[in-house]
Amino acid sequence: xxxxxxxxxxxxxxxxxxxxxxxxxxxxxxxxxxxxxxxxxxxxxxxxxxxxxxxxxxxxxxxxxxxxxxxxxxxxxxxxxxxxxxxxxxxxxxxxxxxxxxxxxxxxxxxxxxxxxxxxxxxxxxxxxxxxxxxxxxxxxxxxxxxxxxxxxxxxxxxxxxxxxxxxxxxxxxxxxxxxxxxxxxxxxxxxxxxxxxxxxxxxxxxxxxxxxxxxxxxxxxxxxxxxxxxxxxxxxxxxxxxxxxxxxxxxxxxxxxxxxxxxxxxxxxxxxxxxxxxxxxxxxxxxxxxxxxxxxxxxxxxxxxxxxxxxxxxxxxxxxxxxxxxxxxxxxxxxxxxxxxxxxxxxxxxxxxxxxxxxxxxxxxxxxxxxxxxxxxxxxxxxxxxxxxxxxxxxxxxxxxxxxxxxxxxxxxxxxxxxxxxxxxxxxxxxxxxxxxxxxxxxxxxxxxxxxxxxxxxxxxxxxxxxxxxxxxxxxxxxxxxxxxxxxxxxxxxxxxxxxxxxxxxxxxxxxxxxxxxxxxxxxxxxxxxxxxxxxxxxxxxxxxxxxxxxxxxxxxxxxxxxxxxxxxxxxxxxxxxxxxxxxxxxxxxxxxxxxxxxxxxxxxxxxxxxxxxxxxxxxxxxxxxxxxxxxxxxxxxxxxxxxxxxxxxxxxxxxxxxxxxxxxxxxxxxxxxxxxxxxxxxxxxxxxxxxxxxxxxxxxxxxxxxxxxxxxxxxxxxxxxxxxxxxxxxxxxxxxxxxxxxxxxxxxxxxxxxxxxxxxxxxxxxxxxx
Length: 772
Fold this sequence. Notes:
About 55% of the residues lie in helices and about 10% in strands. By secondary structure, the protein is an alpha/beta fold. A five-stranded parallel sheet has the order 6-9-12-2-13, with helices on both faces.
């Protein structure tokens, strides 16, 4: 019995602990929610203190806020240009478009550069008075891009860094003489509008019960006026000069275009009439400013506050918005009809974002109605003028552009930003990983997944590139690396980099004009071929078909998949897959050679130093090298051995002799005279030494596989690697195979089985003979 009571007591204690944990978790959740919802208005005096403390945070409009939001998610320090020849800058946009997004949008390098360029123009205020249309074909991810952008913007505005201030009026009822005759005022107000009797009675009850006992009445500015605009424009500059202590910021405030709005804009008709009416009643501007509050603007897509996204099917509202409750109070409190509390739908997104999801159906009419508002910034609401400054964004398909292209004056007010299908194969692969899981890499041999993406991308690219044809004058030298239409080269450029196999001459020729030409051509690409949705479907079919095999997925499987399906083959340029496979084979061969290649770096360095010393003397001399202390018998045999490694085994004696003379000339005029004697470099630090060292090691590597070609034991040893049978092979052969397999895994990310599979592939397909 005692034992049962003891157990029950212990269970009760545990239950209380659990309840305590639940209560604590609920309190923490409550606190977190409240922290997110803090928008407590502050007095105008407190607002002025905030200006003094952090003016850069306070003085910003929607365009500066969007710029700051983008910088928050894509900070400048995260961007980089890997080399001076890079086509574009690398921006990490994952925090803005991928992380914590229900449907991630993967930004390729080309679009990220366009996007950042556009956002920077907001900071400079060089492109206000426009609507920004993101143009892309169906399936390019336009809607996902806009949804994620708006989601992250809304989240940013809830943070301290995302504050944008707006005006709130807190009217002191007693100072203004109190509410006199609410009932009569309401009757007069309602008689002027079309309302049912029931609606009038409900409004009257709400007003009469809610407002007759209030000491203060809050009237928010539906246009989201910045509080600084409540200071009359003629006095604003002098006031700001006196109140802001930061000289550097003050200079920016009065000179930069991005802050023009602080000096030029005026408050809305509601705030203007409130200010003037209060001043007439109170006779003291200080008393008026005491009734002004500043609060952080609430951005909510759900309620259309500061953020409004219209889908094509959303009905259009043309009637002005009246708040009869507020209008009745204002009429009674001031005993005047001078303050008209009326505004339009556009006011709700003033100093906010107004977005059209697709320019179709009702959104066509919305776009056309924005013409005057975008160009003049003014909108009529009954007889009142409403000033609108919003960030207008839209999405459009290329086929829908005729909506505005036939109106020249409107066309000049539209800035289009291309948002095509992905053109960077690395980004395409990231999309596959996100959709199907990062584990898909384990099914593919290295490079094969990227090649699948390249085939998809080939359908999206133009077969003609005047810039590349004008740039690459001798394409024959790159026959191992490019296809007839230069798509493989273009794909590397679209990742932002110049391929390593380009000659030094062509790298030098890739100047500013060439970069601009390539970027201009990219603006027209990605509007045809496989869409994003089709690409995922195609990859799913391929993966479902081949992932069940025991072997890792190979380039042969990729080629077979695209060649056998005629519905896919017609989208892919002729010879592209063959060129891609040839490049893959060449790269595999280089990986295998580098993996089996083993050299003595010290001996190679010694050979080159002796050679550079010896070229300065005549045949038949015997000299002690100043750099290695070796005694060198300078004869024809000494030069032939080294020059055949440096120039190839088939080099003629005349070419070898000329090479020797050229080397001596550069050694004397540059290495010795400048780098060693003047700059104080060691011989191993000179550019000539480095050039010869790279040539020496590259040529040694080129022939690294030669001793094993046709050696059946070598092939069998690879197949038996990491099995008991492997121990039966010759010690030297085991060493070489083990070195090759280890390097394939460590240097090129192959698995043990993948390394075995690709080495056998290189031998069986005689890749060394193919690329002699």
